[in-house]
Every structure is written in structure tokens, then in C-alpha cells.
Amino acid sequence: YNALSRLQVSKMEEQDRVAEWPTPVPMFPSQVASLVSGVLDSVARGYWLVDCRYPYEFAGGHIQGAVNIYTEQQVLSTFFPVSELPQEEARDTAVVFHCEFSSERGPKLCRALRRMDRAVNVYPTLCFPEIYLLRGGYREFFQQFQVLCEPQGYVSMLHEGHRAELRRLRGAGRTRKTLFTHTATR
């Protein structure tokens, strides 16, 4: 059994999991809270919480154990090459992406990891088949499970004190080219 079955994430078709994967699979805040608090330690081999918000948002508060990865280059350098992680362990590791609302940055980097994984593997093999998107993002998680956040705070992307940094970060993201492209061969 894989982590998807054990975590009892919402139903999805096999093609969404292994093919072109147009929509990231949602994981609910309560499920992420169960991962973080250790309730699922007996069924989940491991997990990554990937916080795709900008550094000032992350510093203002994030889910315990989350890593701040907000560019495709960071996704590449963090997850590839996978030679440092045993293949079986990588396959059983849930990777949960999120941003403030899980509507733009989180889904974008979630899809980037899947695209990179497809580019380095022969279909249907994946290094990281268990990729999810935190439903409602950090905002919803923080509202429900503030005690599992460190520090217990919430800084919005549009926070007035970080306008210049936001402009710089958004501009930098638009000038980078996509690191991997994948053309499906059928």
C-alpha cells in the first residue's frame, strides 16, 4: 500500500496520479495536522511540507517542520538528484505543497516537481508519486491549527511592510525560464 491509501486522502483516478496530472491532489488541514503531530507515524514513512510562500511570509509563521521552497530552482536542488534518498523511501514519502491560499504558488511548484519527475523517469515510474496540495493553504491551516505553527503568526503576501520585497521576488520569478519541460510521448 502507498501513502495515499494510508492517509485516506480524497478519492482520485489513477490517471490523475501518474499521467499528465492536471490537478494536484488535495490534502486537508486536518490530515496535515495529523502528519505534523505524529498521529500518522505508524502509516506514513515520511513527509515533506513544502511552503511555497516568500521568505518574509515564512518567517512570520509556518507549519512546524515545513521547508521554505519558493522557486523551481529550489525544487530542483532539493528533490533532485534523488540518489541521496533510497528509491523506495522516496516513493513512500508524501510531499505536501502549499502557499498562502494554495491557489497559485503552491500548485505551480507542485506541478513543477511532477514535471521534473516525469523528465528524469521513464513512464510510469516516478521518484515522488505521493504529491499533494494543502487545501486552503497556510491561511486555512493557521485558522484551524495555530498551535502547530511556528512562530504562531501569519504574514500575508500583500503585507504593507514587505511591498518592495514582494515586487523584487515577483519580478525575479517572471524572468526565470522553466527548468524542465516535458513532452509526453505516447
UniProtKB/TrEMBL annotation:
It is an enzyme of class 3 (hydrolase). PROSITE patterns: RHODANESE_3. GO terms for cellular component: cytoplasm; nucleus. Its EC number is 3.1.3.48. SUPFAM superfamilies: Rhodanese/Cell cycle control phosphatase. It comes from the Eukaryota. This is protein-tyrosine-phosphatase. It comes from Callorhinchus milii (Ghost shark).
